[in-house]
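Dear Dr. H.,

I hope your travels went smoothly. While you were away I took the liberty of generating a structure for the chain from your last submission, since the lab meeting agenda had it listed for discussion. I wanted you to have the full record in hand beforehand rather than looking at slides cold. The sequence, exactly as received, is reproduced here:
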Amino acid sequence: MAYLPGRRAGGKLIAMTDGHEDHVHDASCAVAHGTARGTAEDRVLAAVFASPVASYLLRYGADAGYRAVLVEPDPERSKSLTADGFELAESLAGIDPDSADVVVTDHHRPELGVLLRDALAAKVRWVGIMGNPRHEGPHVAALTELGVPASEITKVHRPIGVNIGSRTPAEIAIATMAGLIADRNGKPGGFTF
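The corresponding predicted structure, in token form, is as follows:
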């Protein structure tokens, strides 16, 4: 029988142990039960533009061990997420590109092209933008207008995340985090192991 010895603020579990003495434990099992820490690496999740999806994405990213950063060039819009305690930045400057996963959460913003151009120029580890994959995204025209070569534009992932049929901001963020974690671990995502 499992018991839950502790929680941290917000109701999230700190550790979980089971009473199954005959269970074979390996490193992954120890991490899952909270008796060992997962491998630590420098990971940054930059959610670009304040939005409901960005709010969930930053929360889930922080829980998954990312340094969660909201990149919002408009100070008025960033106020909506400052209460959540996330790091705020007006641009990607100062974020290590080798450890950065950049997710654009609003494809209707006029700053879209400039922020994506800067992410591509910085050679961030991963960059993607939310949007319906059935039609060309507005980022293509915005980047083309800024003189970004087609070979660079194709590096922008769209759609983002694992296809779970997401319909809400929380589900979109979960699918996105699953896709990012799978990509970092060299896995296809889904139920293929």
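Two observations you may find useful: Confidence is low (pLDDT under 50) at residues 1-8. The beta strands are 3-8, 12-17, 44-48, 67-71, 87-89, 100-104, 126-129.

With kind regards,
E. W.
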